[in-house]
Amino acid sequence: MRVRFEQLYRLDRLLRSKRRYSAEELCRHLECSRATLKRLIAFMRDRQHAPIICDRRDGLYQYDPAHAQQFELPGLWFGPREIVALATLVDMLAALEPGLLREHLDTCRGRLRDLLRGDLDVDRVGRCVRLLSMNRRQVAPDVFNAVTSALVSGRRLAFDFPERDTHARGRRTVSPQRLVRYRDNWYLDAWCHTVDRLRTFGLARMEKVKVLEERSRIVGRRRLERFFAQSYGIYNGPAKATAVIRFTGPAARYAAVEQWHPRQKRTMHADGSVELRFPYGDPTELVKDILSWGECAEVVEPPELRDMVRNKLKNAVLRYEQGPEVRVE
């Protein structure tokens, strides 16, 4: 049964006016035939359980006054294309982290399927979109649910987390600020009451997570952006230096269109090379990204970053020159 969702909207609005309409009046308002009107009313009654009644004496249609206020047409303001867009988002969220919110996503997908039945195929969306994840660390569903619950309710969160230097697990109490999806992994930006500063925590490393009754401390958006957006990658804190990296060969084509940092500056040279300049704080992630380009990326400045990358490359070459380690069982 094919129906037009804008006609359902108009029919619902007419019947909510508390007037009674003849079939001819409804056809005129909806700009449809009697056959289409019958299909619309059948769809509303059978699929959406709308309390549409018709007085046999005069043939006038209306909502049953005893049930009209309790009835709500689900998804009424969405057309077929909008519903497909929502279905795409649902499938993308499910693909981002399989297992998380599975019950809720399945329920949402089922409702979208019911709304589009006879019009478009929601299940086809999952076959048209493919998301590939790399280096993803699994997050326990109870951890994800606790974090999102604390965020939405404005409550503080307590959990065990490894210390940065000793890796011993310590108890943290934080005020969640926002959930971050970065390079196929989930992170939480939060005010850490244990160290009294803003920190970022990987959800995959959290254990024994508990939502507390205390209200969260809310940090202003501008302060969050100043703190988290200055440095490079997921490592937070103020920028301490400016990296200048020159890309040559095949890497130059990608560097010409890639964004490494929101505040980066790009310079195109006559020899085809591309130079990127941007601020950074902790160099850990930046060094890894530079090394991934091999001989096509060269650190120009600052000297300390150049030395870090050079030493990493020297140690890698030395490891290969020594050959594989021979182990005797």
Q: Mind explaining what this structure looks like?
A:
The structure is a single chain. This protein is α+β, with helices and mostly antiparallel strands and 329 residues long. It has 4 domains: 59 residues, Arc Repressor Mutant, subunit A (Orthogonal Bundle), CATH 1.10.10; 49 residues, no CATH class; 84 residues, SH3 type barrels, CATH 2.30.30; 81 residues, Alpha-Beta Plaits (2-Layer Sandwich), CATH 3.30.70. Helix content is 38%, strand content 22%. It is built from 11 helices and 11 strands. The strands form 3 sheets. The protein has a 5-stranded antiparallel beta sheet with strand order 6-5-4-3-7, with helices on one face. Strands 9-10-8-11 form a 4-stranded antiparallel beta sheet. The protein has a two-stranded antiparallel sheet with strand order 1-2.
Could you give the topology of this structure?
Layout (H helix, E strand, L loop, with lengths): L4 H11 L7 H8 L3 H13 L5 E3 L6 E3 L16 H17 L5 H15 L6 H6 L12 H13 L1 E8 L6 E14 L2 E8 L4 E6 L4 E9 L5 H8 L12 E7 L2 H6 L9 E4 L5 E7 L3 H8 L5 E5 L1 H20 L7
Antiparallel strand pairs: 1-2, 3-4, 3-7, 4-5, 5-6, 8-10, 8-11, 9-10
Helix pairs in contact: 4-5
Average pLDDT confidence is: 84
The CATH topology assignment of the largest domain is SH3 type barrels
Overall body shape: elongated
Spell the H/E element sequence. HHHEEHHHHEEEEEHEHEEHEH
Key attributes of the depicted protein:
alpha+beta, Arc Repressor Mutant, subunit A, 4 domains, 11 helices
Quick structural overview:
The chain is 38% helix and 22% strand.
